[in-house]
Write a structure and sequence with these properties.
Elements (H helix, E strand, L loop, with lengths): L1 H11 L63 E3 L2 E3 L22 E3 L2 E3 L1 H8 L21 E3 L4 E3 L24 E3 L5 E3 H4 L2 E2 L2 H17 L10 E4 L1 H10 L9 H4 L1 E4 L5 E7 L7 E7 L9 E5 L2 E2 H19 L7 H22 L4 H16 L3 H17 L1 H11 L4
Parallel strand pairs: 10-14
Antiparallel strand pairs: 1-2, 3-4, 5-6, 7-8, 9-15, 11-14, 12-13
Helix pairs in contact: 4-7, 7-8, 8-9, 8-10, 10-11
Length: 406
């Protein structure tokens, strides 16, 4: 994938960034000229109109509110003031609003605009197609919004085949490239920058998450094999384990703790010389000293999401190695989500110089916090409340002895 290889090369060797030029400041004796309007972020007109800001209008009612000079043969009355026709200007393009037989303008934050300029500046644009989001027949603007990323987009993009990143759930804008994995999943280039596609390459991350459990006082007595698998393999073994892969958060549907003994599992390995090309080989499982035969994780996800899934599944594994079975599903999944959340929280300090991964960690944590399902969402919130009140050790002891959080 030459495009993705080039993208990753650019990440490692970013070009020097040009320094923004500073516009000249207006003269302090400029005959009543006002500073240029500073538009709101994300809604900014590129022009710098000379219409005075609210509070900077000239107060003498017998003179022009814009320039403070006496009137000649004509003036217009607007916004409860009098103006020279050339002084009553659009807050975006700077053109006169007094042209034509009648005054027609829209006021926003104390500034007047041509109706077309107001639409251009403040009407929401679709994050995907970059067009102005169309109005309905009643003049209303309807759009979808991704709550965390705050991307607004036309409702049609939810069903028109627009690719969505399989990790961070951002939709693909028309002016950006997404990578495509061998199983058809799409992934944005931000997530590609730390993608994990090979079982061998994932072992250091697996060791890191195991070390996290040791630091939390929950060492795993046996290092269960960890294998990256494709979607079909994950679904197959989830079915064998009696788990539903159709619902639940990413940490559920993209990972699995095998509690049944298997002799081998198809493992994903990267093809030589390729970034995203992969093959499947049979990975023998020889460790049968515990009732956790392997931890499976979906390949092709960014490092932070992969680690989050590992933390979730290793909590399942730790319970199985403690011979804990039959827990209420909401209690067990809530506890696993808690460990995934705490692991993500610890990553923030380690990623202080990586704004992209900081943002990814925040998003994956947000997914856990805001999950609306009873088992995973409410289960996590109950576990987290107990964790905040009494600490992890007390929560674990309550689950082991009572099968609940309190």
């Amino acid at each position: 994938n030459n495009f993705v290889d080039g993208f990753l090369g650019a990440l490692n060797n970013p070009p020097p960034q040009p320094q923004p030029s500073q516009p000249p400041l207006p003269s302090a004796t400029g005959g009543g000229a006002s500073p240029p309007v500073q538009p709101k972020t994300g809604q900014a007109p590129q022009h710098r109109p000379q219409f005075p800001l609210p509070g900077q209008l000239f107060s003498d009612p017998t003179r022009c509110a814009g320039c403070g000079m006496p009137f000649g043969l004509s003036y217009v009355t607007a916004m409860e003031r009098k103006w020279h026709p050339q002084c009553f200007t659009c807050g975006h393009c700077g053109g006169s609003l007094a042209e034509g037989a009648s005054l027609q303008f829209v006021i926003r934050d104390g500034l007047p605009y041509h109706s077309g300029c107001h639409r251009q500046c403040f009407h929401p644009r679709c994050y995907v197609c970059k067009d102005l989001i169309p109005e309905t027949g009643r003049g209303k603007i309807e759009y979808q919004i991704q709550p965390f990323w705050q991307h607004k987009y036309c409702p049609r993009h939810t069903s028109d085949g627009t690719p969505k990143c399989c990790a961070c759930q951002q939709m693909q804008p028309k002016d950006e490239e997404f990578a495509t994995l061998s199983d058809g999943r799409s992934i944005c280039l931000g997530c590609v920058s730390s993608i994990v596609v090979d079982t061998k390459d994932c072992q250091p991350l697996y060791d890191e998450v195991l070390a996290f459990f040791r630091s939390m006082g929950m060492p795993h007595p046996v290092r269960a094999p960890m294998i990256l698998v494709d979607r079909n393999t994950l679904n197959e073994y989830s079915g064998r384990e009696g788990k539903d892969t159709g619902n639940g958060p990413a940490t559920h549907v993209q990972g699995l703790c095998l509690a049944t003994v298997y002799s081998s599992v198809p493992s994903i390995v990267r093809n030589p010389g390729s970034l995203l090309g992969v093959s499947s080989i049979s990975m023998p499982i020889t460790n049968k000293r515990c009732n956790v035969s392997a931890v499976l994780v979906l390949y092709g996800l960014p490092r932070l999401l992969t680690g989050c899934i590992l933390a979730h599944e290793l909590m399942h594994a730790w319970l199985r190695m403690k011979n804990v079975t039959g827990l209420n599903l909401k209690v067990e999944e809530g506890l696993c989500q808690l460990l995934a959340y705490v692991w993500l929280d610890r990553q923030h300090g380690k990623l202080s110089r990586d704004a992209l991964q900081q943002r990814q960690a925040s998003y994956f944590s947000y997914q856990i916090r805001t999950d609306v399902s009873d088992v995973y969402g409410n289960g996590f919130r109950e576990a987290y409340e107990a964790f905040e009140m009494r600490g992890l050790t007390a929560v674990i002891n309550d689950v082991l002895s009572r099968g609940r959080f309190a």
